Amino acid sequence: MAASTPTPGIHHVTCIAGDPQRNLDFWVETLGLRLVKRSINQDDPGTYHFFFADAEGNPGTSMTFFPWENQSGGKVGSGQVSRTAFRVPEGSLDYWEARFDDYGVDYDERVERFGETVLPFRDPDGLPVELVAVEIPEDDPTVPWTEFVPEDYAIHGFHSVTLWLADPGPTTELLQTMGLEEVGTEQAQGDTPGDERTRFAAEGPVGRYVDVLPTIEGGRQGHGTVHHVAFQTPSDEDQESMRKAVRSQGLSPTQQIDRHWFRSVYFREHGGVLFELATNGPGYDSDEPLDDLGGRLVLPGKFEARREEIEAGLADVTIPRAEQVEADDD
Q: Can you give the residue ranges of the VOC domain (predicted)?
């Protein structure tokens, strides 16, 4: 049974990091994403929650992190998002390899996948990430942030996520229920050689692909792994429609939870990956002016009354600024 309102694609991806300052430095300065929200984990308010995105925090562009310093390193395995990929303009991968050399980023040789060139790398916590060179259309809804990386090379939101699953069958049926269409299969490269990678596509312009790979490789959650992947259900009505469709697959989605910048429903899909359905509003600029996104610690709802206590328990961090980095280099 197909969802009455298909998802346009990925909304955000949330991961687990270690040191918060190192996480900020890498995702803002090295990769050139904007810190659009500096907040806390609403289920663990003693931990930061950082949101990195395009210049306006558009849906389909935000990579978010819980920097749980006391957790150990994780291991990517079955039942996880194994790779998160971002779009960059065609012809930009030479720039990125040179930049990774300058910044000491651990990266692998390029691979070809479904006719596109992919540059795999890892963040400082070992999180597997990829840049995929694609043609960016003139009417693309993303707005690249250019404080550290020029527009000709900048990240334009998500390309895809890859799911590692012991038994892909039930999950592929779920993805089709969510409105994604199977568009191709090819032999995997750089993951589990010999296995087949199957690609599913949503109809939206950003974060539209989900790749599925079979593996029984064991994993564990920790630094350098994905906590969950969220899919766009733009309105409350879209979300409820999708929630009913998910329930029809024998899964148990939560009731809607207010996350301040969007409203969420969570469930574990058949293979164990934590999925979220997220509305597109109110958005990251609902409580801060667009020009000031990420400039202060935002404590949503009931947490504002505990500001003094919460701030006292969080590590001091400094947001990278291009002018400051240039001054330090002089």
A: 9-134, 157-280
